[in-house]
Design brief:
Helix content is 39%, strand content 15%. The chain has 359 residues and is of the alpha/beta class. It has 2 domains: 4-48 and 268-358, Alpha-Beta Complex (Aspartate Aminotransferase, domain 1); 52-267, Type I PLP-dependent aspartate aminotransferase-like (Major domain) (Aspartate Aminotransferase, domain 2, 3-Layer(aba) Sandwich). Bound molecules: pyridoxal-5'-phosphate.
Length: 359
């Protein structure tokens, strides 16, 4: 018998995997508290959860039949929500699945996917899993896209450029001029607008002009259904058509489809929670301004990147002991920083008190 790993695809045997967040029970166990005491500010989740109407719609969903592989109803509703034709829209099991599907559609082994670091880790992770070469271009000193460096890194083997707006974890937007400069280079440009509803700023109006533009969105954040896994992409109908042919047929489960439809119908109520989270982020900003030596980066999302000007990991461990979990990144430019998600007023009270005590 050959060794099992010897049978595996070589590039996957020791892949540099994605650092995902642990479940609440595991976080609690690690610091010796009860799960109810855990405050999760480490995954940009929405603590309010789905609305009552969404929960009721999910509870009524028949679970014994397969969901619609073409997600006709959801695509029609998303068409109305986004103002884009339904044939330009494709739902995925989270924006995450669409990142992977796009990579599968466009990248031959060894071809390049480009991201602009520090940024969301799934772009480079999916590229590695799909045997792509990852070109990571550093952002400039203000974490803005370095267009000149990106242009220099793009060659005829570069198939996809990922940009994130607002960028996770730095919070800044991509401007229209920056996007246009990248779209003119030719590869697919994926603009990840996961946090769109927290700022209302989108580049979707460029879709008519650029066939190589793909916009990614999700229900995980504004609609608070991260656990159900529902995102979508907007792009050329040609891309959508081909992705429909290669995606797993029932990738959107029935509960997620129903929850998506019900969230769109109840979006006025859900957007109130989005507004509250933005308000709490602003409150955190003004509280941090009172703490000497602490800086933060202006954010358009439901999170804030805070620079403590000393080891961020240590501060994150101190917060963890108090049941508050935030995100630390190993990127060299973020060693003194933490990304803190916006929470309920009560969660932010505890966070602010803890930060004042620690820093
Ligand atoms: C920038 C960005 N894109 C995509 C995702 C994943 O979204 P989803 O839950 O829809 O897979 C996240 C999640 O945090 C994110 O921050």
């Amino acid at each position: 018998m050959p060794e099992l790993t010897g049978l595996m695809r070589r590039h996957l045997v020791a892949v540099d995997t994605y650092a995902s967040v642990d479940p609440t029970e595991e976080l609690a166990r690690r610091v010796g508290i009860r799960p109810e005491e855990v405050i999760r500010l480490n995954a940009n989740e929405n603590p309010y959860g789905p609305s009552q109407a969404v929960k009721e719609a999910v509870a009524r969903t028949p679970l014994n039949i397969y969901p619609d592989p073409n997600q006709r109803q959801l695509r029609a509703a998303l068409g109305e929500y986004t103002g884009q034709p339904a044939e330009s829209i494709l739902p995925g099991a989270g924006a995450d699945e669409l990142i992977d599907l796009l990579m599968r559609l466009f990248i031959e082994p060894g071809e390049k996917a480009l991201d602009c670091v520090p940024t969301f880790g799934m772009y480079s992770f999916c590229a590695r899993v799909n045997n792509a070469t990852v070109a990571s271009v550093e952002r400039d000193e203000l974490f803005e896209l370095d267009i000149r460096a990106i242009k220099a890194a793009v060659d005829d083997r570069t198939k996809i450029i990922f940009i994130c707006s607002p960028n996770n974890p730095t919070g800044n937007l991509v401007s229209e001029a920056q996007a246009k400069a990248l779209l003119a280079l030719g590869p697919i440009v994926v603009v990840d607008e996961t946090y769109y509803e927290f700022c209302g700023r989108s580049l979707a109006h460029l879709l008519g002009e650029f066939e190589n533009l793909v916009i990614l969105r999700t229900f995980s954040k504004w609609a608070a259904i991260a656990g159900l896994r529902l995102g979508y992409m907007i792009g050329s109908p040609t891309i959508v058509e081909h992705l429909v042919e290669v995606k797993p047929p029932y990738n959107i489960n029935s509960a997620a489809e129903v929850a998506g439809l019900a969230s769109l119908a109840d979006r006025k109520a859900l957007m109130k929670n989005v507004e509250m989270l933005v308000r709490q982020r602003r409150r955190l900003e003004s509280e941090l301004q009172q703490i000497p030596g602490v800086k933060f980066w202006p954010s358009h999302g439901n999170f804030l990147l805070v620079d403590f000007q000393r080891d961020g990991r240590q501060i994150s461990e101190e917060l963890g002991k108090r049941g508050i979990f935030v995100r630390y990144f190993s990127h060299p430019r973020l060693r003194n920083s933490l990304r803190i998600s916006s929470g309920t007023p009560e969660q932010m009270d505890l966070l602010i008190d803890a930060l004042k005590a620690i820093v």
